[in-house]
Specification:
Number of helices: 15
Radius of gyration: 21 Å
Order of helices and strands: EHEEHEHEHHEHHEEHEHEHEHEHEHHH
Helix content: 40-55%
Strand content: 15-25%
Strand order of the largest sheet: 10-9-8-11-12-13
Number of strands: 13
Shape: globular
Oligomer: single chain
Largest sheet: 6 strands, parallel
């Protein structure tokens, strides 16, 4: 069996990094050799001691960094007798992997975790994106919307694989009168936290004891603090650092909200659904929320950017706790199909396809 080698910038507290940490541990349990290539020595997840971590060190001009990165990836593959599958998680590392693997027989699996339409600003970038995936041996995406971006030639070698989520033994329990709202995610523009703050202002006007906790780091912290102050809700809004115990945070809240404008499949949304807390998410570009949430059955969906709709849904759940409990219970049942073991099995099927393809060509 080929060794599985993930490539990503670092192992900081992010969605792709979380998925890699979970998958790598489960693949190791399945008897696979696993390694991770990173460009920065930032490791904020617990990585099993049996997983080898390689650090790419590239300095100088952009061209020199590319050449050095490619050379080092090629060297790592050579050390493993090219008996490896490269899985770059971002386009930059995908380019490096494709060049390094050229002519070696090393398969490359391209991954797309968000809607390419939001990242590709012109026709040229669209062409490059599609070309990179066409050149890859296989592709893994998170949603049907993301898959639809690519041409039919890519569809033939593309699978939709969802993010794994650990199911906590203890489910969320409704506490009557609890009006704490929580969000988890990086403080970046795509998350549209200003929308959440505007909606919370309306909530707070009607539920003076309501609070809103946002867990995450990012460049927009000062902007969001200023916005909270402008709205007069700074005493009810807390901007907190990334938490190492997501489920403890969710346990004490009443509602989880996600107001992203675009996103693939939100890890924090899945974590909230897995513990059984009611979730309200925007129908963001990328299609992840719409794919997982059946509105009114296992969560609530609001139009992207619709402040009033978000406020009304929060108010509805505050006033209808029985419905909130039912939504959470149904969400938790759905997440039973996203355990790390089941998602790991989906990835192993992809690896087996590549192995079969290689054997057939020999």
């Amino acid at each position: 069996m080929k060794e599985i080698c993930f490539i990503l910038p670092d192992l900081s507290a992010g969605g792709a990094e979380r998925v890699v940490s979970i998958l790598s541990s489960n693949l190791l349990k399945e008897g696979r050799e696993v390694s991770i290539i990173i460009y920065k020595r930032i490791i904020e997840y617990n990585i099993d001691s049996g997983i080898e971590i390689h650090l790419i060190q590239a300095n100088g001009s952009k061209f020199k960094k590319i050449c050095s990165s490619v050379k080092q990836i090629k060297s790592i593959c050579r050390q493993k007798n090219n008996n490896v599958i490269l899985i770059p998680m971002l386009d930059s590392s995908l380019r490096h992997a494709l060049i390094a693997a050229f002519g070696t027989g090393v398969p490359v699996i391209a991954c797309e975790r968000s809607d390419p339409r939001t990242k590709c600003k012109n026709a040229f970038s669209v062409m490059v994106k599609r070309l990179l995936f066409w050149l890859s041996d296989y592709c893994v995406v998170q949603t049907k919307v993301i898959k639809s971006f690519f041409p039919g030639t890519v569809h033939k070698k593309c699978s939709i694989i969802l993010n794994p989520v650990n199911i906590p033994e203890r489910a969320w329990e409704c506490t009557s009168g609890n009006h704490k709202i929580v969000s988890l995610g990086r403080l970046v523009g795509a998350k549209n936290y200003p929308m959440a703050l505007e909606a919370f202002k309306l909530v707070h006007d009607n539920f003076p004891d309501a609070t809103y906790d946002i867990y995450g780091t990012g460049d927009l912290r000062q902007l969001l603090e200023a916005e909270s102050k402008r709205l007069g809700i700074e005493d009810a809004v807390s901007l907190k650092c990334v938490t190492s115990d997501v489920y403890a945070v969710l346990e004490n809240a009443a509602i989880f909200i996600s107001t992203s404008d675009y996103e693939g499949l939100s890890n924090s949304m899945l974590e909230a659904m897995s513990i059984g807390i009611p979730v309200i998410c925007t129908d963001c570009d990328g299609g992840g929320a719409r794919m997982m949430i059946e509105d009114g059955h296992n969560g609530l969906i609001v139009p992207k950017g619709d402040i009033k709709a978000l406020y009304e849904k929060i108010k509805y759940l505050f006033e209808n706790e029985t419905i909130a409990v039912e939504l959470g219970r149904n969400a938790r049942v759905l997440c039973m199909g996203l355990t790390p073991q089941l998602i790991c099995d989906e990835w192993i099927k992809v690896f087996d396809r590549l192995e079969d393809k290689k054997n057939a060509s020999q």
